[in-house]
Specification:
Elements lengths: L4 H4 L5 H14 L5 E2 L11 H13 L12 H15 L8 E5 H13 L5 E5 L5 H8 L3 E5 L8 H7 L4 E7 L11 H13 L3 E5 L20 H5 L1 E6 L11 E5 L2 H14 L5 H12 L3 H22 L15 E2 L4 H6 L5 H12 L1 E2 L1 E2 L9 E4 L4 H18 L1
Parallel strand pairs: 1-10, 3-4, 3-5, 5-6, 6-7
Antiparallel strand pairs: 2-8, 7-8, 9-12, 11-12
Helix pairs in contact: 3-11, 4-11, 5-6, 5-10, 12-15
The structure holds glutamic acid.
GO molecular function: transaminase activity
Keywords: Aminotransferase, Pyridoxal phosphate, Transferase
EC number: 2.6.1.-
């Protein structure tokens, strides 16, 4: 049977594949510490679940909803974003989608034509490049000198085909945050060259140690008009399984997303929409509590990882829940041929599952998620240290 070039040209998601593998090993009785996917180890707060149960019991969740979600949820998201960014959106500026991932996919479908180029700074989240390719466009990876791209670095990669840039802050996997000044210069440059700014703000509520998060949506009206905002409920409300993300943009863009979503998924599960409505209109203190826990884990784990021979954490993460140490030296000292071989042996021998940096465009690194219990994190750091010392 003939299969499409397009599908064969796509690399499966390493985060999902490795997470599934670690979960399977655990199910088979292996004592694996799974630090692969960024999946909060918290359950969804109970008031959110209760709203979902009530929606099921009342029968409200039994039917299709509009493709972009129920009006109440779209309006609540618009209010929430307006509160955060002092903007003036209404429900027609909002599309609710199957996770932030599908928001990004739908945006790519709406913004890109075949041959268009999208600037993607390294390190990048696994799915950006593949989604761009699925839209027939071309990912152009921009390697910054120091984790965050500058206008000069972007300008060096700009061509007449450059259509969009994806800015992810706090960044997965490095955990770094773009400052207001950095975003302003990128934003002004994008406005000048009519380049669409795709702001992936998925980790906006997970910021630590007095660092400040600034969104492209906080900047000048011209930059705002050029920005498509993507966010979601998975990380801030521990709702990965519910699959709720959203896009906020100009109404014309949302109309086009409506057409795409109407053919690709219809609405997200109605029950998830009622859960999300309770999340965004209800008590926000749960998000704060989870944030506090992540901060404590970051502050505990950061020095422990830096103490592992050959592990080098150049900059302390400021947000999200990942650590991205450079392990080039450890790989060499332990005589592994590649970071992948190192990661595989770490899983097989020490039963610690992490993601090789190649999934994020930087081979010499590994990514660990600290959305795991403190007990597991401390044990994982100990196992990794022992593993490296044994192989040295
Ligand atoms: N976004 C999370 C991660 O980077 C979840 C898995 C995924 O969707 O890639 O691990």
């Amino acid at each position: 049977m003939k299969l499409s070039q397009r599908s064969q040209n796509i690399t499966p998601s390493a985060t999902l594949a490795l997470s599934a593998k670690a979960k399977q090993m655990k199910k088979a009785g292996v004592d694996v510490i799974n630090l692969t996917a960024g999946e909060p180890n918290f359950n969804t707060p109970y008031h959110i679940k209760k709203a979902a149960i009530a929606a099921i019991e009342s029968g409200k969740s039994d039917f299709y909803t509009p493709a972009l979600g129920i009006d109440e949820l779209r309006a609540a998201i618009a209010n929430f974003v307006n509160w955060d960014h002092k903007t003036n959106f209404d429900k027609d500026n909002v599309a609710v989608t199957v996770g932030g991932k599908f928001s990004l996919y739908a945006v790519a479908q709406v913004v890109l034509d075949p041959g268009d180029e999208v600037l993607i700074p390294l390190p990048y989240w696994v799915s950006y490049g593949e989604q761009v390719k699925l839209a027939g466009a071309v990912p152009v990876f921009v390697k910054p000198q120091a984790y965050k791209v500058t206008v000069e670095e972007l300008e060096a990669c700009r061509t007449p085909k450059t259509t969009a840039i994806i800015i992810n802050s706090p960044q997965n996997p490095s955990g770094l945050i773009y400052t207001r000044e950095e975003l302003e210069s990128i934003g002004n440059w994008a406005v000048e060259h009519d380049i669409c700014l795709i702001a992936d703000d998925m980790y906006s509520k997970l910021v630590y140690n007095d660092n400040e998060f600034v969104s492209l949506m906080d900047l000048s009206p011209a930059i705002r008009r050029q920005t498509i905002l993507v966010n979601g409920f998975s990380k801030a409300y521990a709702m990965t399984g519910w699959r709720v993300g959203y896009t906020v943009a100009d109404k014309q863009i949302i109309k086009l997303i409506n057409a795409v979503v109407g053919h690709e998924t219809s609405n997200i599960a109605a029950v998830s929409q009622y859960a999300a409505l309770a999340a965004i209109t209800g008590d926000q203190s749960y998000t704060k509590k989870m944030r506090d826990a992540y901060e404590e884990r970051l502050n505990t784990l950061f020095p422990m990882l830096n103490a592992i021979p050959g592990f080098n954490l150049e900059r302390k993460p400021e947000g999200a829940f990942y650590l991205f140490p450079k392990v080039e030296e450890a790989v060499l000292m332990c005589h592994f041929a590649s970071t992948e071989a190192f990661v595989q042996a770490l899983l097989d021998e020490a039963h610690v599952a992490v993601v090789p940096g190649s999934a994020f465009g930087m081979d010499e690194y590994i990514r660990l998620s600290y959305a795991a219990s403190m007990e597991d994190l401390v044990a994982a750091a100990g196992r990794m240290k022992e593993f490296v010392e044994k192989h040295m």
